[in-house]
Design brief:
The chain is an alpha/beta fold. The chain has nine helices and ten strands. The chain folds into two domains: 127 residues, Response regulator (Rossmann fold); 74 residues, Orthogonal Bundle (Arc Repressor Mutant, subunit A). The chain is elongated, with a radius of gyration of 19 Å.
Length: 236
């Protein structure tokens, strides 16, 4: 059962799509504001402080990612989900780097978009599952390559495993698993396992898999669908 109604701002220059999204959101009890250009969205977000913004990537008179940055400066508690017809890795990476908590194709099913709205409010990162099947190039900033164990730990984090649960699966002690995790976070330049999972998905550091594209408190959750296990690695 859903909790209290959320405030959702929809920004898309395609009026029919914007109104269709707004209609579905209102039917489930959410309070919805519709805007048709990025500057309207920024002003409305700063004024009303929505829980979630569904933002188009491209506009005839503006850029959704630039607007996203400005919007989050004025309404930092708002979660932005980018809707885009551009599914290239550069667009996904740019949106996430700007602070988006979700990236979905514009032709995604309405049910998936509604689930994404609820998920980002819970603190999850949602990426369209089709986008996860095409990894991007690893960042040049990753100067120190990952060891086989660190790569396995990263894969397990993305699969949603905690340090405590991955230790027996890797046949190592909790202390050893924690050390591998700490070394991994240091190399990626992040502070939490959630950030590591988002970084891995964003830069294609893990094998693509069939999943629901949701990053939870530990990694990508799979909503009941099996995902490949990482290949065995020698102990280091």
């Amino acid at each position: 059962m859903r909790g209290l109604a959320m405030k959702v701002l929809v920004c898309d220059d395609h009026q029919l799509l914007a109104e269709a999204l707004a209609s579905v959101l209102r039917r489930r009890g959410d309070v919805v504001t519709v805007t048709t250009n990025p500057q309207q969205a920024v002003s409305a977000a700063v004024d009303t402080g929505p829980d979630v913004v569904l933002m188009d990537r491209s506009f005839p008179d503006g850029d959704g990612i630039l607007a996203e940055r400005e919007l989050l400066e004025g309404a930092p508690a708002t979660r932005v989900i980018m809707l885009s017809g551009h599914t290239d890795p550069v667009s996904v990476r740019a949106a996430l780097d700007a602070g988006a908590r979700g990236f979905l194709r514009k032709d995604a099913a309405l049910g998936l978009i509604m689930e994404a709205v609820d998920a980002v409010v819970r603190g999850e990162l949602v990426i369209d599952p089709l986008l996860l099947r095409t990894p991007t190039r690893p960042p040049s900033a990753l100067v120190n390559p990952l060891t086989a164990r660190e790569q396995e730990v990263l894969q397990r984090i993305v699969e949603g495993q905690s340090t405590q649960s991955m230790a027996p699966a890797m046949n190592v002690s909790y202390s050893t698993a924690r050390t591998h995790t700490q070394n991994l976070l240091m190399k990626l330049g992040v502070h939490t396992q959630l950030e590591a999972a988002a970084f891995a998905v964003r830069h294609g550091l893990v094998e693509p898999f069939e999943g629901d594209g949701r990053v939870t408190g530990h990694g990508l959750s799979v909503a009941g669908k099996p995902i490949p296990r990482p290949r065995p690695s020698p102990e280091v």
